[in-house]
Amino acid sequence: MDNIKNTDSLITGLTQIEVDKKIALGLVNKSYSGTDRTVTEIVLSNVCTYFNLIFLIISILLILVGSFRNLTFLPVIIGNTVIGIVQELRAKNTLEKMKLLNAPHATVIRESKLQNILSEELVQGDIIFLTAGKQICADAVIVKGSIQVNESLLTGEADEIEKNIGSNLLSGSFVVSGECYARLEKVGDEAYISKLGMEAKAMNKKEQSEMIRHINLIVKMIGIVIIPIAVILFLQSYYINEHTLKKSVTSTVAAVIGMIPEGLYLLTTLALAISTVKLAGKNILLHDMKSIETLARVDVLCVDKTGTITEPDMEVDDVFVCRENSLGLRDEEFKRLLCRYALFSKDNNSTMNALKKYAKLNSIEKDFDTPINILPFSSELKYGSITFNDGVYLLGAPEFIIKDNFSDYENEIIRRTKSGKRVLLFAKYLSDNIKDGLIEDAIALGFVSFKNPIRKNAVETFNYFKNQGVNIKIISGDNSKTVSEIGVRAGIENAEKYIDASLLESDEKIREAALSYTVFGRVTPKQKQKIIQALQEDGHTVAMTGDGVNDILAMKDADCSIAMASGSEAATQAAQVVLLDSDFSHMPELVYEGRRVVNNIERSASLFLVKNIFSLLLSLLSAVFMFTYPLEPAQISIVGMFTIGIPGFLLALEPGKERIRGHFLKHVLLKALPGGLTDVIIVFAIVVCGSVFSISKESISTIATMVMSVVGFMILCKISIPLDLRKCSIIFLNIAGLIFTGIFLGKFFALTDLSGMSVLFMVIFGFVAESLFRNLTVLVEKTKIYIIK
Q1: How would you write 211-248 as a 3-class SS string?
Q2: Burial class (CB in 10 A: 0-12, 13-18, 19+), 324
Q3: Which of 633, 740, 762 is nearest to 257 (CA)?
Q4: Which whole number is the average pLDDT over 551-573?
């Protein structure tokens, strides 16, 4: 806790005794309706699932009929549940530690001193000091000062609202400009933002990523059909085919186990949790795990200039008077007026901080008169103003201050903008009415140019995105020529294609420009938002990086928002991803991790669905053709273990950098379809031929198990292309594991010794399965493009 001298001695704030009393009464700014899951919720969500209930029921049934060897699936189910709980808890603990580092802070007055504390340590009645970029942490009332507030995160309205003494401030909104002191009225769960907490929690559950949504859809559909199919199979086996109760139960359980995707959801949760922890180790905080998938689909990355392409800190490069100014100012007098403006300005952005540093080195503060009125810099207006006794002075974008007269001064600044410098105009306004906009003419007095170096790894970072097919758009409030030059130096493709957004007077022009240009200068916050929307309407998946309050509207609408921790607090709290060390060079790692995870989940998910498609179709065939489901639960378990479960989880850790395209569910089903159809056709043929040649039921189930294993390894080889040493090792180790288990634990997994005829059957159907799988794969791949469309 840092104690700072209070600049306003009239505001004393609460005493420590008063604070302690508030804490005792529970009037603390701590919300208990957070959106993160508790430990209890994580445990219950992994244990008390619909399919775990089904596994419990079928386990009891198998025990009752004495089929203990068919309980081989239990260790896998228990292991899945335990691993899921452990990994989610690990990810939760890691994220909580990181969120604490990035937790919102507040400047509060207590005992007449300014203190910087965590927002959740505030109490009702505290006086807080708010400046631009701060997010309002509790409902409050202004007691001194004036600020511009944006409530878009609460209301969706993007307008900047002026708040003066007596005005109410809603928690969740953020300060755009100005500074004020405000007294907290409602804190914790009573605050406006907290009352929206439960609603936000419900929305978070609904607003799932495409991958999670489709996996949940698969699970839901299987959950609906599994019970009626199980009932039909049992009744048919017991009453129509007149099998024993034990045989009827075990065959039905085998069909049910085959249809349940027991490892699919765990695989997804595990992969996302591991990636979250992995990124945390690189100082990348994910506010929600769905952003990993979104990043994998990104094909357009929108960035700001300052703090992203360049270093966040700026430096004054030059100060120069207009060659012809009607006031006849000399260099020294111009610098004195400029320094006076800087020292009284309430702005705390990087540009003004650089100018204040320059002013303190070149002026004497006591020589200046006190200002009459101060209007902070506005991202919408592109200028700020201060009224002194001798008139109103403006500082901001030249195009927005002198408007039609800009061409008269363009030659004076073009040399600097071409070299990547940022140039602001200092002018005197000829009217006292500044709140209604610049109605009268302004007198250009001089210019100040700023420089800030390009980040060291910028060229390498943007080359990565170019190679990965990700287009870059630079959206900045600076002069378009300046931004374009910076973009060219940073190696951004087509950075020479720039446009001044002040010329984009309609939404239609913004849409056209968004698709044609790479660099956008003099962009207002609303225009940033509309550019993002235009790109999305054109079918792009858009990520937006930013660090200031002027970026929040665009970040809010982007598919994925990334903030620099060194930027405004409001931006970091609104973003889905926060770069805690504000190092933009982490972006390739972030995108790569997203692609790796989703590609691997998509590949491994197809393995799980092969078994589900096979068991569902074979169950339907069993019901239609009146034959008992030919496999036992233990046999389904051994096939699933070595051709799906173990290799699926190992392959989920593979590298992968291809951008995700299309729909997750369609891709997964199309990959799984050839294998699932091959299994069901071959096993159905084995059942029919076995009946014709009078082969025992036990031998038929063993033959089917072995042939399904062969198909499983063919599928594994197919989805592992291109093969490397690691993938080959995974395949061969699982083949060895299956052979070892079949030889030494055959009885345990319901595998019987085969006669010569049965071995011949197995070999023939193995070759047939290979040919069938190869041709079905070709057929599906030929029709895939039409199905996806």
Answers
A1: HHHHHHHHHHHHHHHHHHHHHHHHHHHHHHCCCCHHHH
A2: exposed
A3: 633
A4: 82
Q: CB-based contacts of 324: which residues, under 8 Å, 6+ apart? A: none
Name 140's bridge partners.
Answer: 169, 184
Per mean pLDDT, which range of 60-64, 96-100, 373-377 is the poorest? 96-100
- Residue written as tokens 């004020």? 180
Task: Provide CB contacts within 8 A for 197, sequence distance 6+.
Answer: 31, 33, 34, 35, 189
* Kind and range of the H or E run holding 621: helix 587-625
Provide mean pLDDT across the span 86-93. Answer: 76
- Sheet strand arrangement including 442-451: 315-321, 442-451, 422-429, 391-396, 383-388, 373-378
Q: List, by residue number, the catalytic residues.
A: 304
HEC string of 652-673?
CCCCCCCCCCCCHHHHHHHHHH
Contact, 569 vs 134, CB < 8 A?
yes
CA angle in degrees (0–180, nearest 5) for 147-148-153: 125
Question: What is the spatial distance between Cα 788 and Cα 662, in angstroms, rounded to a whole number?
Answer: 7
Please give, one letter per residue, the 3-state secondary structure of 316-374: EEEEEECCCCCCCCCHHHHHHHHHHHHHHCCCCCHHHHHHHHHHHHHCCHHHCCCCCEE
Cα–Cα distance measured from residue 250 to residue 89, given in angstroms and rounded to the nearest whole number:
36
Cβ-Cβ contacts under 8 Å for 415 (sequence gap 6 or more): none
Q: Which two tokens stand for residue 404?
A: 């039609």
- CA gap 482, 449 in Å, rounded: 11
DSSP element (H, E) containing 415? helix 406-418
- Predicted pLDDT of residue 3: 53
| CB atoms near residue 109 (< 10 Å) | 21
Please write the tens of the pLDDT for every residue from 508-527: 999 999 999 999 998 888 89
Q: For residue 204, what pLDDT is reported?
A: 42
Q: Is the peptide bond before 525 cis (omega within 30 degrees of 0)?
A: no
The single residue listed with the structure tokens 């406006």 is 192
Spell out the residues 6+ positions from residue 697 whose beta carbon is closer than 8 angstroms to its own: 628, 630, 690
Cβ atoms of 704 and 683 closer than 8 Å: yes
pLDDT of residue 364: 60
Q: What is the pTM of this model?
A: 0.75
Rounded CA-CA distance 760/357 in Å is 88
Round to whole Å and give the CA distance between 304 and 308: 6
- At residue 152, φ and ψ (nearest 5 deg) are -65, -30
The Cα 586–Cα 609 span in angstroms is: 35
For the chain, the helix, strand and coil percentages under 3-state DSSP, each to the nearest 5: 55, 15, 25
Q: Which of 745, 295, 671, 301 is nearest to 492 (CA)?
A: 301
